[in-house]
TrEMBL record:
<dbReference type="InterPro" id="IPR006311">
    <property type="entry name" value="TAT_signal"/>
</dbReference>
<keyword id="KW-0133">Cell shape</keyword>
<comment type="similarity">
    <text>Belongs to the YkuD family.</text>
</comment>
<feature type="active site" description="Proton donor/acceptor">
    <location>
        <position position="182"/>
    </location>
</feature>
<keyword id="KW-0808">Transferase</keyword>
<dbReference type="InterPro" id="IPR038063">
    <property type="entry name" value="Transpep_catalytic_dom"/>
</dbReference>
<feature type="signal peptide">
    <location>
        <begin position="1"/>
        <end position="24"/>
    </location>
</feature>
<dbReference type="InterPro" id="IPR050979">
    <property type="entry name" value="LD-transpeptidase"/>
</dbReference>
<dbReference type="Pfam" id="PF03734">
    <property type="entry name" value="YkuD"/>
</dbReference>
<keyword id="KW-0732">Signal</keyword>
<feature type="domain" description="L,D-TPase catalytic">
    <location>
        <begin position="86"/>
        <end position="222"/>
    </location>
</feature>
<comment type="pathway">
    <text>Cell wall biogenesis; peptidoglycan biosynthesis.</text>
</comment>
<feature type="active site" description="Nucleophile">
    <location>
        <position position="198"/>
    </location>
</feature>
<keyword id="KW-0378">Hydrolase</keyword>
<keyword id="KW-0961">Cell wall biogenesis/degradation</keyword>
<dbReference type="InterPro" id="IPR005490">
    <property type="entry name" value="LD_TPept_cat_dom"/>
</dbReference>
<keyword id="KW-0328">Glycosyltransferase</keyword>
């Protein structure tokens, strides 16, 4: 009788130990996983602003503006530039571009600045623009990047063309400054200083700016 009682006690203790080990095993196989906070919701007006443009010559996808600080989303602001309406102002250090309007207002765009974007400053004018332009890299760029040799005589328009769907060409007097405002599909480049190119805007933004600017409009570039 005594041995039977001890056996039952051992069995109960053994079962309890197994239960504890089982619970311990569950704890070790289900570690806590850090929860990534959701991205801030993009207001519907901005989703519409940067939506796909299927009717362009080359259909444009929606811009990934969740990758960009909202300060660089297109927005109407107070004109703090001191420039008269109808002027393009590029604030290079802030990575912002302004199109000045009536009543003390301005349309502000986020931009990315490349090496060539730091090469010129001052006052000039928008000589002309092109829709879906051909891109011809300068000889100096081809010397730096020999892989561009196939495009010495021009790269045909396309989504991958470095100028994108629109380009504005800046002159000073009768001289081409080689300074350009153009499109770029990589949202991550907006607000950044990138490796090459001049001043780049999201496709949707450069199309909007292109529709506002008149040839001969003054431009001021601040370094």
């Amino acid at each position: 009788m005594h041995s039977h009682t001890i056996s039952r006690r051992h069995m109960m203790l053994g079962a309890s130990s197994l239960a504890v080990l089982a619970l311990a095993g569950c704890a070790t196989t289900t570690p806590k996983v850090p929860v990534t906070p959701p991205s801030p919701a993009i207001p519907p007006e901005y989703r519409a602003m940067y939506a796909a443009l299927p009717n362009e010559r080359f259909p444009i996808p929606a811009a990934d503006i969740h990758l960009i600080d909202p300060i660089y989303w297109r927005q109407e602001v107070t004109n703090t530039t001191g420039e008269k309406p109808g002027t393009v102002v590029v604030d290079t250090p802030s990575r912002l571009l302004y199109w000045t309007m009536e009543d003390g207002r301005a349309m502000r765009y986020g931009v990315g600045i490349g090496r060539d974007g730091f090469a010129w400053e001052g006052r000039g004018h928008v000589a002309y623009g092109r829709e879906w332009p051909t891109w011809t890299p300068p000889s100096e760029m081809i010397d730096r990047q020999p892989e561009l040799e196939p495009y010495r005589h021009g790269m045909e328009p396309a989504l991958e063309n470095p100028l994108g769907p629109r380009a504005l060409y800046i002159h000073q007097g009768n001289r081409d400054t080689l300074y350009r405002l153009h499109g770029n599909m990589d949202a991550r480049s907006i607000g950044q200083a990138v490796s090459s190119g001049c001043v780049r805007l999201l496709f949707q933004d450069v199309i909007d700016l292109y529709g506002r600017v008149r040839w001969g409009a003054p431009i001021v570039v601040v370094q």
